[in-house]
């Protein structure tokens, strides 16, 4: 337990400068945007010069850049991400409302690509260089070359438009008043195609790491010893797979940011009102505070995921973090 | 065998070149084969592929030639992919070298900076950057490069850290060369091979990000893009799904070809190592 606490502490300390840089970067981007929040607000509501200057005063926009930066930071410290002009609501509220759907989509897609990727990785790595290995490698590479939004469109043409097995878009049936298991299965059937599209594209990464890991373990002394003792091929593969699974956990952390980016586009294809759609709405409405709020929240999310992955890794491999050195 | 010969002899390289070379020719010859504006309306709308010899791949919702769009889109895709990857590799290599050679404080600062850039999803960063600056060819290239430089920077730094202890670097120091000279003339060129090994992945992901950006309507509005064509076709997905499918197939072929070349290069490097 002590070891885990030390690891968390060290990770959190390391995350502070990183998040500080992200905050400064977001502020700079906000400054770079033509016009400020008041301009965007007035453009949507209308108002005279007196109102404009009153708004600038109350939002602190008439101060110098450095004063505005401190205002920005001190508001952030209180959990205030600013005001969304296109929704006329606090940015944080809008984001928190959308986040769970994106997390569900991302989480399911990650689980699918991890499961399929490690399975096919074991199948390919069981006999490196075999016909099956080559076939799986080429197929996964072709999938990995696909833009996820395009694969989503192709899947929806086949399974939603032509076969009508799945709904074309949305997160759940609107105004159906479903509850409990009924609602869960409704959401599941809506998310099936986007999850499959996202999961299949990124499956290749896990498969390749698994396969490469297994191919490497095949050359280790203990495997030669197992062969010499007359272990069956299947039993040796099991031993090797367990050893190759560890690096795959690290991939989960690296992939968190990529998956988040991928779900932005996939959500637009399937009209899922999550963080990705929100990003697009923020872009369309020139709602820079909302856009940058999304970036900050996703950076926080990526840091959090990596912290969890580190803990899992430390739990799986007791050698890590035992004596206090970093991973 | 020389490096190039070894690279060319792998099956992956040959498959990759077989896909990429025709595509490259297609892109380079686009202005000659399809002079005139690819965004101009030239025929009857929603003509299906393989029906009219004047428009082999049909026409879109407005009556624009799909094949001409594909050719001009190939130019945009490859141009953005190569330009973004080149800038990311250059910036990454320079920052990595400075971090690896510039002392503890500089190293610490630059590594936090790369970490910060890796924490923000590259696609979100590109999306935010383009929407703030405004969509144009250069802003798209810049936006993609902004998310792509950390990986080469990390690899370059790791390489520089191991090279700087070598004897020839010590020798350069002894003869009185300035640190900047040592870093960029003695060390950087030797640190490049593993950095360049990343290039296929970076070009491929740049092409995919460009496609996704233009799919969301953030591509250069004055150019034909494959992502934009897919988005256009989406509006008639039920009746004319070929309009979305064709540019996507072109994207898959391009990206797959680049991955295959990268695999071929990796294989050639491995083979070299086992010879020595």
Which secondary-structure class do the elements of chain B indicate? mainly alpha
Share of residues in strands of chain A: under 5%
What is the H-and-E element order of chain A?
HHHHEEHHHHHHHH
Report the oligomer.
heterodimer
Tally of helical runs of chain A? 12
- Low-confidence segments of chain A: 322-327
What's the Cα radius of gyration of chain A?
24 Å
Q: Total strand count of chain B, please?
A: 0
Distance between the amino and carboxyl termini of chain A: 17 Å
Helical proportion of chain A, percent range: over 70%
Please list the strands of the largest sheet of chain A in the order they lie side by side: 1-2
How many alpha or pi helices of chain B? 13
What is Rg of chain B? 22 Å
User: Main β-sheet of chain A: number of strands, strand sense, barrel status?
Assistant: 2 strands, antiparallel
Main sheet specs of chain B: none
Topology pattern of chain B, helix = H, strand = E:
HHHHHHHHHHHHH
Going by helix content, strand content and strand pairing, the class of chain A is mainly alpha
Instruction: Name the shape of chain B in a single word.
Output: elongated
Helix content of chain B: over 70%
User: How would you describe the shape of chain A?
Assistant: globular
Describe the structure.
The complex is a heterodimer of chains A (327) and B (276). Chain A starts with a helix and ends in an 11-residue tail after the last helix. In chain A, 37% of the residues are buried. Chain A is built from twelve helices and two strands. In chain A, strands 1-2 form a two-stranded antiparallel ribbon. The longest helix of chain A is centred in the middle third of the chain and has 38 residues, at 180-217. In chain A, helix 5 (91-126) packs across helix 12 and helix 8 crosses helix 10 (233-270). With 327 residues, chain A is mostly helical. Helix content of chain A is 77%, strand content 1%. By secondary structure, chain B is mostly helical. Chain B is built from 13 helices and no strands. In chain B, helix 8 crosses helix 10. Chain B is elongated. The mean pLDDT of chain B is 88. The chains are: A mainly alpha (327), B mainly alpha (276).
């Amino acid at each position: 337990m002590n070891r885990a606490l030390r690891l968390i502490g060290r990770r959190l300390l390391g995350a502070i400068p990183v998040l500080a840089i992200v905050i400064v970067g977001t502020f700079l981007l906000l400054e770079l945007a033509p016009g400020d929040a008041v301009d965007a607000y007035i453009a949507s509501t209308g108002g005279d010069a007196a109102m404009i200057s009153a708004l600038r005063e109350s939002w602190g926009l008439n101060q110098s850049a450095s004063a505005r930066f401190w205002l920005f930071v001190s508001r952030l410290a209180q959990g205030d991400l600013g005001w969304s002009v296109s929704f006329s609501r606090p940015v944080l509220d809008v984001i928190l409302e959308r986040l769970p759907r994106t997390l569900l989509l991302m989480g399911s897609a990650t689980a699918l690509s991890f499961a399929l990727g490690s399975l096919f990785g074991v199948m390919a790595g069981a006999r490196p260089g075999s016909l099956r290995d080559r076939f799986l490698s080429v197929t996964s590479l072709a999938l990995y070359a696909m833009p996820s939004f395009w694969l989503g469109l192709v899947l929806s043409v086949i399974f939603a438009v032509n076969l009508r097995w799945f709904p074309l878009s949305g997160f759940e049936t609107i105004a159906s008043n479903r509850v409990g298991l009924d609602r869960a299965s409704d959401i599941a059937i809506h998310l099936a195609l986007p999850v499959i599209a996202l999961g299949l594209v990124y499956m290749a990464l896990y498969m390749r790491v698994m396969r490469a890991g297994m191919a490497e373990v095949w050359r280790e002394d203990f495997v030669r010893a197992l062969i010499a003792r007359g272990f069956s091929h299947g039993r040796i593969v099991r031993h090797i797979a367990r050893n190759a699974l560890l690096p795959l956990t690290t991939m989960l952390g690296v992939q968190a940011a990529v998956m988040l980016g991928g779900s932005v586009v996939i959500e637009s294809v399937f009209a899922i009102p999550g963080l990705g759609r929100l990003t697009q709405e923020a872009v369309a409405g020139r709602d820079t505070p909302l856009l940058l709020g999304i970036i900050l929240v996703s950076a926080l999310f990526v840091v959090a995921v990596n912290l969890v992955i580190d803990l899992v890794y430390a739990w799986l491999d007791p050698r890590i973090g035992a004596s206090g050195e970093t991973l | 065998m020389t490096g190039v010969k070894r690279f060319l002899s792998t099956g992956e390289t040959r498959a990759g070149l077989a896909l990429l070379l025709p595509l490259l020719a297609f892109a380079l010859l686009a202005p000659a084969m399809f002079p005139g504006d690819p965004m101009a309306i030239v025929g009857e709308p929603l003509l299906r592929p393989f029906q009219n010899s004047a428009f082999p791949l049909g026409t879109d919702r407005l009556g624009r030639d799909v094949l001409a769009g594909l050719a001009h889109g190939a130019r945009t895709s490859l141009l953005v992919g190569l330009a973004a990857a080149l800038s990311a590799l250059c910036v990454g290599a320079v920052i990595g070298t400075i971090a690896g050679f510039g002392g503890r404080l500089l190293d610490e600062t630059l590594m936090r900076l790369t970490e910060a850039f890796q924490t923000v999803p590259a696609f979100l960063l590109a999306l935010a950057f383009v929407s703030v600056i405004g969509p144009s060819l250069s802003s798209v290239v810049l936006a993609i490069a902004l998310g792509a430089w950390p990986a080469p920077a990390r690899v370059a730094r790791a390489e520089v850290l191991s090279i700087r202890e070598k004897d020839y670097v010590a020798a350069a120091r002894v003869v009185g060369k300035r640190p900047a000279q040592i870093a960029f003339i003695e060390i950087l060129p030797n640190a490049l091979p593993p950095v360049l090994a990343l290039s296929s992945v970076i070009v491929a992901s740049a092409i995919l990000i460009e496609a996704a950006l233009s799919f969301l309507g953030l591509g250069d509005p004055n150019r034909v893009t494959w992502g934009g064509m897919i988005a256009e076709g989406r509006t008639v997905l039920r009746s004319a799904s070929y309009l979305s499918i064709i540019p996507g197939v072109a994207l898959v072929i391009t990206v797959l070809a680049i991955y295959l070349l990268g695999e071929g290069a990796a294989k050639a490097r491995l083979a070299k190592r086992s010879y020595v």
